[in-house]
């Protein structure tokens, strides 16, 4: 009779706090590891700085004005007069496409505005200008 009462008193306890710590550790580990898996394919450009900036949207197309004045649509070089046709083609595929205008800070202001004007005239409703955040 004495043995039975000892067994009842010494039941194991389930410690949930260490399990919660391990789950949070795994969550943070997987979140941090997925951040380094994203690879961004853009052309290196010396961007101007701005205090208020936000990151790119997932469905976006980069339009870059290089330091020598050439225009790049994603990763291919094209003249400014063909830019409108290419923008119309992309808008035909997906109408809510965001165009990110990236202009080198050494490029004259007028060239960047000419590219922006071509984007707007070709029907692009969502155009953003890329800048670097002030540190």
TrEMBL record:
Keyword terms, alphabetized: Cell membrane, Membrane, Protein transport, Transmembrane, Transmembrane helix, Transport
Family designation: Belongs to the ExbD/TolR family.
Protein name: Biopolymer transport protein ExbD
Pfam families: ExbD
Highest taxon of source: Bacteria
GO function term, MF aspect, one: transmembrane transporter activity
PANTHER family noted in UniProt: BIOPOLYMER TRANSPORT PROTEIN EXBD-RELATED, EXBD MEMBRANE COMPONENT OF PMF-DRIVEN MACROMOLECULE IMPORT SYSTEM
Membrane spanning residue stretches: 12-38
GO biological process: protein transport
């Amino acid at each position: 009779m004495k043995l039975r009462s000892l067994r009842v008193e010494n039941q194991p306890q389930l410690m949930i706090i260490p399990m919660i710590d391990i789950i949070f550790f795994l969550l943070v580990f997987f979140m941090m590891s997925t951040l380094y898996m994203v690879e961004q394919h853009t052309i290196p450009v010396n961007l101007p700085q701005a205090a208020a900036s936000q990151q790119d949207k997932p469905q976006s197309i980069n339009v870059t004005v290089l330091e020598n004045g050439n225009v790049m649509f994603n990763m291919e070089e094209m003249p400014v007069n063909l830019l409108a046709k290419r923008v119309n083609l992309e808008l035909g595929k997906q109408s809510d496409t965001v165009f990110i205008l990236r202009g080198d800070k050494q490029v004259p202001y007028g060239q960047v505005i000419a590219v922006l004007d071509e984007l707007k005239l070709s029907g692009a409703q969502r155009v953003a200008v890329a800048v670097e955040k002030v540190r």
